[in-house]
Specification:
Layout lengths: L29 E5 L4 E3 L5 E2 L4 E5 L4 E2 L5 E3 L6 E12 L6 E10 L2 E9 L7 E12 L4 E10 L5 E3 L4 E8 L1
């Protein structure tokens, strides 16, 4: 069965208050946050990345001051695209032996992006990834990272690293 609205060349006016349900469309809830200044990291220790500056947050679902996490709002369960663009810095040339960034759901790793650089250590390692997964109401998403420096000094997450998510399907 099909429904035809108008004919070719017709203009259809949709009144305010009409909403779309079902698959896709607006991609909300959605948020993106960044780090306003570099965050120090201890060597070989998982640390939650503190994305403290919201660039947008359609449903006030990202906490940028206490827990640094996105929590799925009531009525918004579905498939989400979760992404990060994070640069890790060993703070001196050829000091970064390895790096690992994890997306954690309710405290458990659901996706990791690791670089092992032991034979060719670097100073900077840019990490970019996107993960698509199912989220239920009240699930929360966070980013954790760990670096290992050749001199065990640690390092940092560089300013302007980003983390975000948006709903793609109910």
């Amino acid at each position: 069965t099909s429904l035809e609205i108008g004919s070719s060349g017709d203009t259809i006016t949709i009144p305010s208050g009409v909403t779309q349900s079902g698959v896709g469309g607006v991609n909300t809830p959605a948020f993106q946050a960044k780090i306003s200044s570099s965050q120090s990291l201890s060597d070989d220790t998982f640390t939650k990345v503190q994305f403290n500056t919201e660039e947008f947050d359609t449903n006030n679902a990202y906490d940028n001051s206490t827990n640094y996490r996105f929590t799925v709002p009531s009525g918004e369960a579905g498939k989400y695209a979760i992404y990060f663009a994070v640069t890790l810095d060993g703070e001196t040339s050829s000091n970064l032996d390895s790096s690992l960034i994890e997306i954690r759901k309710n405290g458990t790793n659901i996706f990791g992006n690791e670089f092992l650089l032991l034979s060719n250590p670097l100073r900077y390692v840019p990490n970019n990834a996107i993960y698509i997964g199912e989220l239920s109401v009240s699930d929360y998403i966070e980013i954790f990272c760990r670096i290992e420096a050749s001199d065990a000094s640690g390092g940092r997450v560089n300013a302007n690293s980003r983390f975000g998510a948006y709903k793609i399907i109910e």
